[in-house]
Amino acid sequence: MKREYVIKPVIEHHYPTIQYGKGIYLYDEQGQTYIDGCSGAVTAGLGHGVQDIIDAMIEQANKVSFVYRSQFTSEPTEKLAEKLCELAPGNDYWTFFVNSGSEATETAMKIAIQHWQEKGRPGKNKVISRRMSYHGITLGALSMSGHVLRRRRFIPLLEDFPVVMPPYCYRCPLGKTAGNCQLACADDLATAIKRIGAEHIAAFIAEPIIGAAGGAIVPPEGYYKKIKAICELYDILFIADEVMTGIARTGAMFGMEHYEVEPDLMALGKGMSAGYTPMAATLVKDHVMEPIRQGTKSIMSGHTYSANPQSAAVSLAVLTYIEKHQLVRAAESKGVYLLNLLRQLAQQIEIIGDVRGKGLLLAIEFVANRTDKSPFPAALSVTSRIIENAFQKGLLVYPAAGAIDGEGDAIIVAPPLIISEEEIDQLVRILAESIREVMAEISP
Ligand code: PLP
């Protein structure tokens, strides 16, 4: 066998070589076609090979691709930040550009801490997050993540940040019944703040809809309004991690719009450049920037490629494309269509415990027993089997396994926002076949 040079996610696993992509389809060099049912890692929201984006990329490359942010600004970066401010709730955000979702959440944490330092409250330097959350893989971002599997190996290096209960109504971690719980999971934040002391806490971070750490978990009515009120009461900044939910994915430009809450900081990534170039950002409300503007006037963060004009031009073209083709509306209506089909599947396939999500960020949770919702034993690898089976049939879906403190099985279905109803039908047909085949394999 030929020697390998690239360290892949699983060493010595065979990964097909991709040749090209068009729309929702990817084609490998063996001639296999794949439906991109999860936009890669919930990223390629416009689908593949969109000419408008390629043109914008070439146009900018013909001018200048890179300048260092400490030496120059550029027209695309200025225009992109202005556009983000115009689109974001409240229209009063500043933008700090980075290159990945992990950098965006970690930068949000650092800016929150700096905000309190500039206000003469340096003791406020912890961030509260939730169990079942994922905010990124760098050590700061991982410190804020309640993702058991991804943390495990690095525990000694991580900050011991507090975590609170997630709004996971299908399987309430506080043992409550949905609709009759007085939002006890939101109260858990207030309890944690009182226990630790607000004087030690800079911010609370949450994904508007929980992604990789549980699978499109939508909070109950009123949850974020209560969370924001608690944060305001105790002088704690609210960071919305919109890396997965942001930029049209859930049928709103930002996930938090569904809950009519304006976060103090937002982290963006993935869909912001729809996979055409690495690009991410931390959005910061004017009132959070104010003491920094008045004080040291500089944020101690940033990366070599931060705010490079090449990625900014691409991201600007992506936002323009989303508006021109009304993809926020498309995500909403196609999401309803797909959700209904998945709910119909749930009536026919008994290992489907829950179907949930918003817009085109949807998920299916699998259970061994629908009545008591007991999960499959981890050793059965139900999620991996379904993903592999679908892959062999030419359909890509994304894992959200390990939802219940390292256990549990779920997949995310999040196709490009340009998907047609016929293509959704095709996606669901293949997925149903894969789930049925795996169910037959694991049945005693
Ligand atoms: N935050 C959320 C909600 C994510 O889903 C992810 C990635 O899946 C990240 C942060 C980290 O982003 P990246 O992989 O670009 O570093």
TrEMBL record:
Keywords: Aminotransferase, Pyridoxal phosphate, Transferase. Belongs to the class-III pyridoxal-phosphate-dependent aminotransferase family. The keyword Metal-binding does not apply. Pfam families: Aminotran_3 (PF00202). CDD domains: OAT_like. InterPro entries: Aminotrans_3, Aminotrans_3_PPA_site, PyrdxlP-dep_Trfase, PyrdxlP-dep_Trfase_major, PyrdxlP-dep_Trfase_small. The keyword Transferase applies. It comes from Paenibacillus oryzisoli. This is Aminotransferase class III. Signal peptide: none annotated. GO terms for molecular function: pyridoxal phosphate binding; transaminase activity. Gene3D superfamilies: Aspartate Aminotransferase, domain 1, Type I PLP-dependent aspartate aminotransferase-like (Major domain). PANTHER family: AMINOTRANSFERASE, AMINOTRANSFERASE CLASS-III. SUPFAM superfamilies: PLP-dependent transferases.
